[in-house]
Write a structure and sequence with these properties.
Elements (H helix, E strand, L loop, with lengths): L13 H22 L3 H23 L6
Helix pairs in contact: 1-2
Length: about 70
């Protein structure tokens, strides 16, 4: 029989995790809006998700600047 190992997942920076979850949520909103032919709302959601990803990556790349 194979031996299983437990993996300890750490969350890291909670703000970065929250921003990633927000970006995923904004992409979901954009996809729903796009599928219901609300293209302006979809475009704004995609734009907002891109801005959130940008701010998240800046925070992850330089954590001292965020404090």
């Amino acid at each position: 029989m194979g031996r299983t190992t437990m993996v300890n997942f750490t969350t890291g920076d909670p703000v970065a995790v929250a921003l990633a979850a927000l970006a995923v949520g904004l992409f979901a909103v954009a996809l729903v809006a796009m599928s219901t032919d609300r293209l302006t709302a979809a475009g704004m959601s995609f734009l907002a998700a891109s801005i959130v990803i940008y701010f998240r990556e800046r925070r992850v790349a330089d954590p001292d600047a965020a404090e």
